[in-house]
Design a protein that fits this description.
This protein is an alpha+beta fold. It has helices at 3-9, 19-34, 68-82, 146-152, 154-167, and strands at 38-47, 88-98, 104-116, 132-134.
């Protein structure tokens, strides 16, 4: 089942206008539903020449049932129509932690700056990875080894902030 389908089934089909608001809405929903703290994220690609599109609509950019390849094709087509002088882009991820009362305990954002290639390259990753070349590299996310991508990606950076928050919490000492 695709993520959009189960979000819609759970009543989360109303997408908020920012990655942070989407992550918060998901975390609050799951925390309330489980009576436990919950962690949730939202992420996507922002392309400068497209005024930040696809943005929060990254997964639905070419329509609800479009494939990753369809979304990549549309993105390249839109950039080609513009004759975009710059292909600057960035991946953004936001991770939220909510308690069952809906209080947001932590919000961490990760950004990975880069550019969009002229054609898909590589077989790794998913989504826009075959088009995104992170700053300081010549390879797309789909061409880079997972060990590098997992260190520099937007998700890695957001989760690092989350890990920092969690590691600073007071934890009761456990008997060995």
């Amino acid at each position: 089942m695709k993520i959009g389908n189960w979000l819609r089934d759970l009543g989360l089909a109303r997408y908020e206008p920012t990655f942070a608001e989407n992550a918060i809405a998901k975390a609050q929903f799951y925390a309330s539903a489980t009576s436990l703290c919950a962690l949730a994220d939202d992420s996507g690609l922002e392309v400068t020449a497209l005024n930040g599109a696809p943005g929060v609509f990254s997964a639905r950019y070419a329509g609800a049932h479009a494939s990753d390849a369809d979304r990549r094709t549309l993105l390249l087509s839109e950039l080609n129509k513009l004759g975009a002088p710059t292909r600057r882009a960035r991946f953004v991820a936001v991770v939220a932690i909510s308690n069952p009362n809906g209080e947001i305990l932590n919000l961490s954002e990760g950004i990975c700056e880069g550019t969009i290639s002229f054609s898909p390259r590589g077989t790794g990753g998913f989504g826009y990875d075959p088009l995104f070349i992170p700053e300081g590299y010549d390879q797309t996310f789909a061409e880079l080894p997972d060990t590098i991508k997992n260190q520099i990606s937007h998700r890695a950076r957001a989760l690092l902030g989350t890990r920092t928050f969690l590691s600073q919490l007071d934890h009761p000492q456990r008997d060995s």
